[in-house]
Amino acid sequence: MAKLFRLFGKKRGGRMSGWWVVGSVSEAAFYGLLFILGIVSLTTVVTWRVFWPASSILEIGFGFWLMVIASSSFVLIGLTAFLLQVSHVMASPELRSAMVDQAKRDHHRRSKGEADTAATSLPDATILKDSPGVKLAYRLAANQGDTATLAVSAAFGAAWNAMLAVLIVICVENHLVGNHQYFLTVLLVPFAAVSYFATRWFFRLFRRHIGVGPTTLEISELPLLPGNKYALYLCQYGRVTFEKLKVSLACFEETTYQQGTDVRTERHEMSRNVVIGPKQFVIEPEKPLELDCQFTLPLDTMHSFQSPHNAIVWKVIVEGEAPRWRTFCRSFPIVVHPRPVYPQPAQQRDDVNLT
Amino acid sequence: MLEFEYVVNHVEPQSVEKLEVSVMWYTEGKGSEDIGIHMFQQVGREALIAISLDQPRRLSCSLPASPLSFEGRLLRIRWCVRLRLFLADGRELTTDKPFYLGHLTRDL
Amino acid sequence: MIAGSVSMKHLSPPGPFSPSTERGGTNADLSRHVPNPFSTRFVTPGQVAWVGDENYFDQLVARWKALKGRASIIGVHGSGKSTLLEYFVPLIGNVIWRRDAEGCVVFDTLSDYASIEDSATERLPTLWLQLRRTALPSMVIPWKELHRGRLLVIDGYEQLSRWQQASVLVRTKLRSVSLLVTSHRRTWLGTLCKLSISSSTARQVVSQLTAGRDDFAESSEEEIRGRLLAHGGNMRDVLMELYDQYEDQRKKMTGEVKSNS
C-alpha cells in the first residue's frame, strides 16, 4: 500500500527509495503536464489579446505580463526537466560524466591538431579509450540506436501535444465568443487520437528503458589482439527479472553499395561467441547486476577494418529477455587490431600476356 | 618484406609513356570497391629507355600489418602488385599479381 | 595492336599460401579465392556488355537527332538506364567532365578544352553527372561550362525537385545546351526510349557473367523471370540476389568438401 503513494523516488546514497519505475514515469509525466499547462496558458493569454484586443479580460498591463512570464517559465521548466528526465534514463550518471569528459578531450585534441586517422583502414581505438572504467581500464560506449527511438518519441510527443494544446485553446476561445469553428473542432478529434498514441508510445518506451535501465560495460584492454585474453565487467541497472541475459562477442561484415540513385548498406554476421549466459538474473534498483568474465580472442580472428564503402566491425552485444518487458539488445563497438605478420620464403613466377 | 621483380617483353620502349607499379589492396564483393595504395612507383620514359624493358627490375617494400587478406561473404580483401603501362597511343595496359597478406586461410 | 608480356616474380612473398602451391590445397580452397561473378566490379554499369539488337544504337542516335538533342531515357530501378548511358553517350558526346554518385569529379578536362574546338566536333563536349538521393542538395551543375554546342547528361533526373527540374530545362534551353537525362517517370523532354528488362535479356546477362564458370548452376529462364517479377523488373536486385545464391552454393560446397576430406 505504501508504494502506491510513493510516486516520486528519492536518492539515498547509492539507493533509490520508492517504486523505481512508477516514480520515474510519474516524474516525466509531471514535467510533461507542466509543459503542456504552460503552453495552454501562454496560448490563452496571447491569443485572447491578439484576436480580441477590445476585450477587458487580460488587458495589457502588469497582470498580463505576469501571466506571460509565469506561463513561459512553466514551458521552459517543464520542457527542460522532461528532457533531462528522459536523458537520465538513456545514460547512466557515469556515462554522462564520461561523455562530458570526452567532449572536452575531443576539443583538446582538435585544438592540438592531432592526426586524422580516418584515412587508414584500421579504425581508431583512441576514441574508445577516452572513457576510463571504474573496475577495468575502459568503459565502452553503447551504440545510440536503442536510445534514439526514445529521444524521437519524446520530441515528437512534446511537439505534437504542444501543437494540440494551442489548437484546443484557440477552438475553445472561439466557441466562448460565439465564433463556432466546427471544422477546427472536428479536426481536433484525429489530432487528439494521434496525441494519445504518441504519448502512449513514448511512455511505453520510457517505461521499458526505466525497467531495463542503462547498461555499463567495461573492458580490460583496447584495442584487442587475436590470441590474447581479456576481462569484461557488466553492470546492468533497472528493476527487472531477466529470463535470459546473454553477452556475446560478434563480428559483422558491412558493405555499402549503390543501387541506382539509392545507397544501400548490408550487414552479415560473420561470427558470434557467447561470453556470458544465457542465464537468469534478477535486478533490483538498489542493487544493479554486476558480472565479471574473461574471454580469449582466437588467433585466426580477422581484425577490424574500415574503408569508405566496406567495414568489418566487432561488437560486444548484451541481450536480454524479460517477461514484462520486450527483449532488449545493446551493442558496444570495440576495435580488434591485427597481430604482426611474418614472411615465409616461397617463389613463384607467372607470365601474363598483355593485349 | 615483399620483394619482386618484373619484366616487360616484346614492347618497344618508345611506345611506352610511363609505367606505374603499385603494391595495393582492394575490396571485392557486394559493396562498392575500395582500394588502398601501400607503395607506388612511377617510371618515366627516360628511365624506361635507359634500362631495357626486358631487363628484370627489382622492387621491395615492407608490408603493413593490415589490412590482412580476407575472404568473407559480402567482402573480400585482396592484395596485389599492379603494373600499369601507359602507351603513347593513349591506351593503358594493366596486370595484377595477387598475393596473400596474413594467415587467414579459412572462413570464419 | 601491341602484343607483349609482363612477368612478375615474388622473391619473398609474405604469405605462405597461394592457390597453386598450397600444400594439400583442395578444389574447395581454390574456389574460395575465385571472385563471385556477381560482385560489384562485374555488374556496375559499363562492365556488363549491352544485350540487344545490334541496330539498336543506330536507331537511338537517329531518334536523338529527331528529338533535336533533348531527350530522356525512362525506366524503373535496375532497368539498365545507367548501363545504356555508358554505351550511348560516347556515340553522341565526348566526355570532358564527369562527376560520380559519390559527388567526386572523376574526370575533368574542362581546362584543356577550348570553346573553339566545340564546333569542330560532331560529338558534343559532354558534362555528365550522376545524382544520388543522399548526395542532394549538394549537387552542383557546372553552369559556367555549359553553353551552346555542349551536352549535359544527368543520370537520376527524378532526384531533382520540380523546381530544380524546371530550372535545368529552362537554363539549358536558353543556352542551347543539349540535354539527356534518365528518369523513373516521364519528363517534359521527349522520350528517347523506355527501358524494361525481359527475362531472356536478363538470362543473357546472367549467362555473360557466369560464362566459363562451372561453379555456378545456370539459371533457367523461368527462374530468372520469377526473380524479375519478384523484384519489379529490377535487374540490379536480381543480380544481388544471385550474389547471395552463389555465396550460399560456395559455402555448401566448401562444407561438403571439408566433410569428405
List its traits.
heterotrimer; B: 108 residues; mainly beta; five-stranded antiparallel beta sheet; two-stranded antiparallel ribbon; 1 helix; 7 strands; C: 261 residues; alpha/beta; seven-stranded mixed beta sheet; 8 helices; 36% helix; elongated
Please give a structural write-up.
Chain A is built from six helices and twelve strands. Chain A has helices spanning 2-5, 20-51, 62-90, 93-112, 145-176, 182-212, and strands at 11-12, 15-16, 138-140, 215-219, 229-236, 240-259, 262-283, 289-296, 305-306, 310-321, 328-334, 348-354. In chain A, strands 6, 7, 9, 10 and 11 form a five-stranded antiparallel beta sheet that branches. In chain A, β10 and β11 form a beta hairpin. The longest helix of chain A has 32 residues, at 20-51. The model of chain A is unreliable at 1-8, 12-19, 111-119 and 343-355 (pLDDT under 50). Chain B is built from one helix and seven strands. In chain B, β6 and β7 (92-99) form a beta hairpin. With 108 residues, chain B is mostly beta strands. By secondary structure, chain C is an alpha/beta fold. Chain C is 36% helix and 18% strand. In chain C, strands 4-3-5-6-7-2-8 form a seven-stranded mixed beta sheet, sandwiched between helices. In chain C, α6 crosses α7. Residues 13-31 of chain C have low confidence and may be disordered. The chains are: A alpha+beta (355), B mainly beta (108), C alpha/beta (261). Chain B binds chain C through residues 1-12, 15, 28-33, 58, 60, 63, 69, 71, 73, 76, 81, 83, 85, 87, 91, 93, 95, 97-103, 105, 107, and chain C through 2-18, 22, 29, 32-33, 35-36, 39-41, 240, 243, 247, 251, 254.
